[in-house]
Amino acid sequence: MGLQAQESHSPYVSLWARLADFRHAELTALLHGRDVVRAKLHRNTQHLVTAEDFRRLRPLLEQVLKKARQGAFGRAIAGLDLHDLEAAGRELMSGEGLTRPQLAGRLAERFPGRDRQALVYATQSLVAHVHPPPSGTWGDRGATPLVLAEEWIGRPLETAPRIEDVVTRYLAVYGPASVMDVQAWSGLTRLRTVLDGMRSGLCTYRDATGRELFDLPDAPLADADVPAPVRFLPAFDNLILSHADRTRVISDEDRARVITGSEVRPVFLVDGFVRGIWSWRDGTLHVRPYRALNPDETSQTGEEAERLLAFLLPAAQHAKGEVVIEG
Predict the structure, then answer these.
(1) What is the three-class DSSP state of 75?
(2) Has residue 95 been placed in a domain?
(3) Cα(182)–Cα(193) distance, integer angstroms
(4) Burial of 287 (0-12, 13-18, 19+ CB in 10 A)
(5) How far apart are CA 247 and CA 301, in angstroms?
(6) In terms of residue numbers, what domain contains 245?
(7) Global pTM value
(8) Which of 46, 181, 197, 239 is the most exposed place for a label (fewest CB within 10 A)?
(9) Is 284 found in the same domain as 200?
(10) Does residue 276 fall inside a structural domain?
(11) pLDDT digits (tens, 9 = 90+) for 269-299
(12) Between the CA of residue 265 and those of 64, 97, 237, 247, 272, what are the distances in Å?
């Protein structure tokens, strides 16, 4: 549920890795059609979600965003009337909206003597907004405008969203999952009671450590002996971030190499587990395994890398692209 969108290319690669015959224009059309929006949500980072999911999620994550605001700029905005700041932000983001530098300048005029970055950050946490296209679309490197979410979507946010609906949406993508997994993904806490209340409508399992996992009753489970195909995932992909126990897809050793500071590198998976990272520059796709691949794995990784390269490059440049598997 939701695609990491810190980098504009990432959601496109995420969908390419998960959907057959996905084309760039399909997601771009959904963004322009306002069916999908780009906004700051989970972990206080940019995500793409459907407009309907945003209407549910943004109110539920209000406290998470507030905590991040206080941790980052609490001192800088101490003493400010947050109701006044929110009202100013709503007024300035209404209509065509503003870019961040424009918003910073306008807020500084209204609240002189305050740190501009703190004003903008706090306002973004107070006012539900989205970043309309072309921001977040394939190939865009322009400014990031901010507009009122309810105006862009054309409907108000839900006043009493049900956390159960969000948990169900999460399990549809990431189940089977534990209570701690759901909390790690959402940033919300004390969800044990919520999952317990949903228990009669869910399936439950136990993992190898005895931990209880929840899933939807009609969700298919792959047999343990069925090999998973090679997959290439973009930077910040939620598969790497949406579980408390990430060893189900990445070892602790590899996690320390993939996640450094605020960076989450693009990875590739072999048989369902991270085996290395990849990068793309100047028409060349570099694949760097963390451990040696056997001949079959090398062949499968190369074939999938060629498919990814074709997706990344314009059709006219396909013949000029190259895949390099290091090691």
Answers:
(1) coil
(2) yes
(3) 12
(4) buried
(5) 21
(6) 231-325
(7) 0.90
(8) 197
(9) no
(10) yes
(11) 999 999 999 999 888 999 999 999 999 999 9
(12) 25, 32, 9, 17, 17
